[in-house]
Amino acid sequence: MAKASRMTKQKRLILEILRGTRVHPTADWVYQQARQVIPDISLGTVYRNLRLLCEAGEIMELSFGSTFSRFDGNPLNHYHFVCRQCGRIYDLDLPLREELEEEVRRAGYEVEHHRLEFYGRCPECARGAGNP
Ligand code: ZN
Ligand code: MN
Predict the structure, then answer these.
(1) What's the domain range around 29?
(2) Ligand nearest 73 Cα, by number?
(3) Do the domain assignments include residue 132?
(4) What's the CA-to-centroid distance between 82 and ligand 1, angstroms?
(5) How far, in Å, is the centroid of ligand 1 from the Cα of 80?
(6) 96's torsion region: left (phi>0), alpha (psi -120 to 50) or beta?
């Protein structure tokens, strides 16, 4: 029983950390933040709870091919901009393009969902103010 409530506390903390940031962090970043509140939390526990939160639809995992995943406290579909220069991932204030799914369905595919990311340089880096 004590173990179960502890798990819940850890999961709640991880969710709070993700909902409280817009940086789309890595699991390791979440781990570093969580340790400041629960010093003996393990990286494995962070990974496990991130996976459980994803499965429960509370958060979203943004996987980028073979590189590590980033996590998003907003589980509702929205679009991102990935800056190639500074590595930051931004939320884009764009309406969802549901019609894209319709077009793909018309071609005979059963669509579950779609993800859309744009790549390039963010405004800060384009101004020369970003990290090198
Ligand atoms: Zn940038
Ligand atoms: Mn996002």
Answers:
(1) 9-67
(2) 2
(3) no
(4) 8
(5) 13
(6) beta
